[in-house]
Amino acid sequence: MNVCFAPCPVVFDLDGTLIDSAPDIHASVNAVLRLRGVRPLTLDQVRGFIGGGVDLLWRRVIGATALPVEAHRDLVASFMTRYHEATGLTRLYPNAVEALGILADRGYPLGLCTNKPMAPTRAVLEHFGIAGLFGVVIGGDSLPQRKPDPAPLRAAFLALGADPETPRGLYVGDSEFDEECARNAGIPFLLYTRGYRKLPVDRMLHRASFDDFARLPLLVEEAAAVG
């Protein structure tokens, strides 16, 4: 029997789950490309590159352009100077904040586990005034491992008071990285279908899926009751 030291923690991904940050990431990528004299990428192209962290983002950008592979480190550094405070084009998904508030009011400990680096993660949480809703925030540079490795997600649940050996809780995300991370950690996964996933919903393992955050509190209640 699973032991739960905190009442069913719920941990969220960020980009493509709570926020649509693709326009800001797109603008930051193209600002770097312009400096290099490279044709800008489309928003859809960049959106398709999001999910595995900044290093993977730029490996994909390099693969889609004429940029040399050996420029990767400098490109990432140039990107990060712009990305740290990039919030102007980012939007919360409809009803996301309301759903977070309902879950918090019902006593669910909330956390965040993202491959986004901590500095831009903190910037966007402060920008939208939601930093205080999360008992723990694990960014892409918080640990040596990144999703889909289960270590960041396990660290989030541990910080929220879950049993470190058999953590009970829920992970809410939008992508293949999130689904694989939840599976690797042995955590039930709730799939938000309006994010950045590339696979069809029926090819992803999930406890439930939803396209409107207004449905999330009920889905959490149902999933928590199942255990």
TrEMBL record:
Biological processes annotated in GO: carbohydrate metabolic process; DNA repair; glycolate biosynthetic process
UniProt cross-references to SUPFAM superfamilies, sorted A to Z: HAD-like
Binding-site residues, Mg(2+): D13, D15, D174
Listed Pfam families: HAD_2 (PF13419)
EC numbers on record: 3.1.3.18
InterPro entries xrefs: HAD-like_hydrolase_sf (IPR050155), HAD-like_sf (IPR036412), HAD-SF_hydro_IA (IPR006439), HAD_2 (IPR041492), HAD_sf (IPR023214), PGP-like_dom2 (IPR023198), PGPase_prok (IPR037512)
Keywords linked to the UniProt accession: Carbohydrate metabolism, Hydrolase, Magnesium, Metal-binding
Cofactor(s) needed: Mg(2+)
Top-level taxon in the UniProt lineage: Bacteria
GO MF annotation, one: phosphoglycolate phosphatase activity
Record field: catalytic activity: 2-phosphoglycolate + H2O = glycolate + phosphate
Gene Ontology cellular component annotations, sorted alphabetically: cytosol
Active site: D13
Coiled coil feature spans: none
Protein's pathway: Organic acid metabolism; glycolate biosynthesis; glycolate from 2-phosphoglycolate: step 1/1
EC primary class: hydrolase
Claim: NAD is one of the keywords in the record: no
Sequence similarity: Belongs to the HAD-like hydrolase superfamily. CbbY/CbbZ/Gph/YieH family.
General function of this protein: Specifically catalyzes the dephosphorylation of 2-phosphoglycolate. Is involved in the dissimilation of the intracellular 2-phosphoglycolate formed during the DNA repair of 3'-phosphoglycolate ends, a major class of DNA lesions induced by oxidative stress.
Protein name listed in UniProt: Phosphoglycolate phosphatase
Native source species: Paracoccus aminovorans
